[in-house]
Amino acid sequence: MGDNPVAVGLNLGHDGGCAIVSGDQVVAVAEERLNRTRYSSGWQAALAYCLDAADLHLADVDQVVFSNVGPRLPDGFTGGLDRYGVDPAKIRRLDHHASHAYSAFCLSGAEQALVVVADGSGNDHQTESYFCADRNGLERIGGNRADRGRAGGIGATYEAVTNWIGFDGQESGKIMALASYGDPKAIDLPLFDLVGNQVEGRLPRTHDRGLAAFAADHALDLGTPYAWGEQRARDLAAWVQAQTEDALVGVVEQLVAEYCPTTVCLAGGVAMNCVANEAVRARTGAPLFVPPPASDRGQALGNALHGIHRLTGRVPSLPLADRDSFGRSYSDEEIHLALRRHPMSGLAERHPHRPFTFHRESDAPAVAAELLADGKLIAWFDGGSELGARALGSRSILADPRHEATRDVLNTRVKHREYFRPFAPAVLTERATGWFDLAGPSPYMLFAPRVRADRRDQLGAVTHVDGTARVQTVDRAAHPAFHRLISGFEARTGVPVVLNTSFNDTEPIVESPADAVATFCRTDLDALVFGNGYIAVKADG
């Protein structure tokens, strides 16, 4: 083991992937970004990617840590890595919720914290776990009762309503958006009880059948199943959203009163609910940190960070500094090959050939700002990819935020998704409080403050129906090129905000230049701008 021990984290469940941590170096990627299939399990391609990006071999690795969801991995589990020369003594397993807790605490930069993990399922029916963390270790201090079924958890309950309304359990974010169109008081029944800090959900079973059984027991009219367009479905969404906020707030209030932490970290899939996060921050006053890969996309990273703890005896601190870019960067040559549609770029086009021209500019952010001010829809590709589920200026689609029609054009022509789903604003950090009711920075789109009333007519494409927005604050030091782009847009329009959504259509967010070119050609985007200066424009645009 050298001066900087090397730990590899691998996640076996949905949103599988790999992370490598060595000293201050972190490389991480989700498997789905490489095989182009959403929510993929697996880690093999991600491991090869991370080893290559870190310029390491398996022989250099000091510790490998696996995690999974559901039944725990058996003793002696190696994932087959022993066949490739990895000493089984170097391979460990980590509890699913502990992995979430490591990723949140280590990325927070705090010296001490309370960590609250809430998701659909961890190991052994865990859905909520609470930890006290410091640089010496993480101690589990509570969570759901061991004999309480998974159906009683916050995440599992939200998932059940999601299923009933007509979406997959991985699509809970759609329910968060739909909730703003419903009445949370249309159903006057609680979904959760709190016994101390323990959550006792009232559904007897998981998924939509559990909600149906609950409705039958209480003579509750759920409306037509799988019909998200009906008003009853909107009311159900509003109901479960409000109940989730109340449960999370109650848990955090109880724990803060007992442990008086200096920082509270939220992690797990429930922590991706930016509306609930905003409620926790506003109603508890707790200093709150939520990592961008709060869902299972962060499992591999949490595992690797745990591996460093085991190797060094200290829990590592790797504060994010407002950026979630753990992917590798791509060279000018790799970008040029993709733009030329060269086979060596890895481009496998699955659409008719669509002509475009490309050239190079000395100031790509300025050109991008001008395109946006002219009403163009552009893709923006800069540096390494984000690990979390939200694009933060590395793999983004950008648009003018001022006109409500832009939202509908993006939903129908580019993203091909439901009309009710909002788009996020990316705002210059130094201008943010003049446009949004922010309590503090929001660099990861994990809070949903209100848009200031006197600014809403200037932000029609990013203001949700309830007057909120999933804000990203953009810091000059963290995102220099993206910050220059937004500043250029402000100079032309007077608005220090751009619409920012993930660079994808129905596939995962793009990873490579080849992915970027393929998605650019397949959609109605007007231009593709690379941070290094390459700019592609549709021939008919």
Automatic annotation (TrEMBL):
Gene3D superfamilies: 3.30.420.40, Carbamoyltransferase, C-terminal domain
Start and end residues of each Carbamoyltransferase C-terminal domain: 369-535
Stretches assigned to the Carbamoyltransferase domain: 90-305
Pfam families: Carbam_trans_C (PF16861), Carbam_trans_N (PF02543)
Family from the record: Belongs to the NodU/CmcH family.
Protein name stated in the entry: Carbamoyltransferase
Organism of origin: Streptacidiphilus cavernicola
Classification of source organism: Bacteria, Bacillati, Actinomycetota, Actinomycetes, Kitasatosporales
